[in-house]
Write a structure and sequence with these properties.
By secondary structure, this protein is of the alpha+beta class. Helix content is 35%, strand content 22%.
């Protein structure tokens, strides 16, 4: 005997199966039959699973049909995931929230034509760091990281729709964020010294909020040097100036 169940996520479908069958999750084998998404932000996602009751061979109906070689196989538990489920591309995500964000990013990069796998690098109280591994990393990062910033923005919009007050998603690829941070700190000191020597202000290239904050913080305690942001929108410029000229 087999039973099928549906849910918005794999975990929700499994929880429904466990509740209705009145057995422990460890006792069942699960096949993912269908995973549909109605739009880019996956808000209409529907997952259908087939549950094999204890003692049955997966895919064996009335003892006459052998298991298909292409049918998903079960695996050991991973974090909050129930036993019997291991999804391709789910990386090392542990919760439904993490799986949803990982799946979303994977879908977007696939639609872009530059597929990537997503690995969770760290988890903090209000932040989750994710790494994109791809043969197209240079394209996904983009000039000055603008493509990566755009993907990160989309991921955070998605995260906010899934869960109110969701942790911020930080995307990286090929260690770009760290290299960029080191480069900006070096730039800040170089420009600060230049402005202090010439006493003429310097307007830096457009930067995202994190990068601007890094420049402000780096130069904040340097005597006679001040900074301010100029412009509109997400990418503003930082002006470094000599305080005594203001």
């Amino acid at each position: 005997m087999e039973r099928e169940f549906e849910g918005r996520t794999e975990q929700e479908a499994i929880d429904t199966a466990v509740r209705e069958l009145g057995i422990e999750a460890e006792e069942i084998e699960v096949e993912i039959l269908e995973s549909q998404k109605s739009g880019l932000f996956s808000m209409g996602k529907k997952v259908r699973i087939r549950v094999h009751l204890p003692g049955e061979e997966p895919g064996d109906v009335d003892g006459n049909v052998a298991e298909s070689e292409s049918a998903p196989r079960s695996s050991s538990p991973t974090g909050a995931r129930s036993p019997g489920v291991r999804l391709p591309g789910s990386a090392n995500a542990e919760t439904d929230f993490e799986h949803a964000v990982v799946d979303f990013i994977g879908t977007v990069t696939e639609m872009m034509g530059f597929p990537a796998t997503v690995q969770i690098m760290y988890r903090e109280e209000d932040k989750i760091g994710m790494r994109l591994d791809s043969d197209f990393s240079n394209i996904l990062i983009g000039r000055k990281g603008k493509n990566l910033d755009a993907l990160q923005l989309l991921a955070n919009v998605m995260a906010g729709r899934i869960e109110e007050g969701a942790s911020k998603i930080v995307l990286d690829s090929e260690g770009y964020r760290l290299r960029r941070e080191e480069s900006l700190i070096s730039l800040a000191h170089k420009v600060g010294d230049q402005v202090k020597r010439t006493r003429k202000s310097k307007l830096l290239e457009p930067m995202n909020p994190f990068e601007r904050r890094l420049i402000h913080t780096t130069l904040n305690d340097i005597e006679d040097i001040g900074t301010e942001s100029e412009g509109e929108g997400l990418y503003k410029q930082v002006r470094v100036f000599y305080r005594n000229n203001r």
